[in-house]
Amino acid sequence: MEQLVQKLKNGKMNIIESPIPTLQNGQILVRNHYSLISPGTEGSTVKAARKGYIGKAKERPQQVKQVIDSLMNQGVTQTYRAVMKKLDAYSPLGYSCVGEIIDLDEDIRGFQVGDLVACGGATASHAEVINVPVNLCVKLKPDTDLKQAVYNTLGAIAMQAVRQADLRLGEACAVIGLGLLGQLTALLLRASGVRVAGVDIDPSMVAAAKGNCVDLPVNRNDVGADELILEFSNGIGCDAVIITAASPSLDPINFSGAIARKKGRIVVVGAVPTGFDREPHFYRKELDIRMSCSYGPGRYDPSYEEKGIDYPVPYVRWTENRNMSAFQDLIYSKKIDLSYLTTHCFDLADAPDAYDMIMGRSEHFIGIIIQYDTTKTFNREIVSVAATHQSHSAIGIGFIGAGSYAQSHLLPHIMKTSDVSLIGVKTATSLSARSVAERFGFDFCTGEDSDILDNKEINCVFIVTRHDSHARLVQATLAAGKKCFRRKAALSQT
Question: Is 229:197 a contact under the CB 8 Å cutoff?
Answer without folding.
Answer: yes
